[in-house]
Amino acid sequence: MALAGVALLAACAQEPVVTAFAPVVARSNPADEARSRAVAQHVQLAQKARESGDLAAAANQWRIVVLLAPGEASYRREQETVNAAIRQGVREQLQTGNAAMKANDNDRATQAMLRALALDPDNDEAARALREIDRQRISRIQGERAQKLRPVDVNALKAGASDAAATYDLEQPLEMLRAGDVSGGMRDLRAYVDANPGNKAARQRIGTAVADRARELQAKGSREQALQLYEQAGALRGEAIPEWTTQIQVLRKALSEEYYSNGERAYRSDVALAIKQWETSLKYDPQNLKASARLRDARAAQDKLKSIAPAK
């Protein structure tokens, strides 16, 4: 009887004891983990942009965060805080600009209105004010020339008026680009080049300004936008610059590798997303053999899954 008891105790010692309070370990969802990492990344970018004073960039990052995590109220509050700061900033710049215009300080007014557009590129009041400032400048230039010219030179004055207007048509989009309104500045610069394709000096200025902006964005890590600007800089200038061509190649390689890595992470949980990432990788660098091979295998796996999926 004693031996049986010892054997029973030994058997019990070899078996784990499971209680009603044993913790349950939840399996992590790869898609949720990827989303959490993306949210954390964009939150960090939003905070950095806010700290550097780039409210427009911060607002864009918070918009992405809210889209990724729509149920998180704290993110919506941060987004609204930045949007409120933008609205306040626009109001302040408009007040400053309007006061400067009343005081005939057009240089100060221009800077204020450009800062307002950097915060809100679609602000009609700031855009109208800048057009009015340009009109006043051109009128003043024409008036000053008229005072210096003899009556027989009136026709020459009329011919020169279009040159003055063209000069200011160029200066405004250049200032917009430097102030951060990339989309608005580029739109007007392209329109200028379309209207003045033979103005080589102006096209050189435009190309250099666009490349300078691309360099700034590249330093901040905005590689896709930097690549677009480098490519447009060459087109606007009308000739290729070796330095810009080199940077285009560097950025294309870097972006191809970035999207290749994104595809590797996505493949574990979302084959369709991985395929899109690898397609983008090859768009930037068609010679990326790793992305090409992974895309081919992923498409084959996707086709196989579709072929064995039960018909609905």
Please, could you describe this protein's structure?
By secondary structure, this protein is an all-alpha fold. It has 13 helices and no strands. The radius of gyration is 30 Å and the shape is flat. The termini are far apart.
What is the gist of this entry?
The chain has helices at residues 2-14, 30-51, 55-68, 73-102, 106-119, 124-148, 154-179, 182-195, 200-219, 223-237, 242-267, 271-284, 289-308.
SSE layout:
Elements: H1 2-14, H2 30-51, H3 55-68, H4 73-102, H5 106-119, H6 124-148, H7 154-179, H8 182-195, H9 200-219, H10 223-237, H11 242-267, H12 271-284, H13 289-308
Task: From the structure above, extract its key features.
312 residues; disordered N terminus; mainly alpha
Q: Strand-residue fraction?
A: under 5%
| Percentage of residues in helical conformation | over 70%
Q: Which class best fits the helix and strand makeup?
A: mainly alpha
Count of distinct strands: 0
Distance between the termini: 65 Å
Instruction: Note the total helix count.
Output: 13
- Can you summarize the main beta sheet? none
> What best-fitting shape do the alpha-carbon axes yield?
flat
**Rg:** 30 Å
* Spans of at least 5 consecutive residues with low confidence: 1-26, 148-162
**Can you give the mean pLDDT?**
80
Run of helices and strands: HHHHHHHHHHHHH
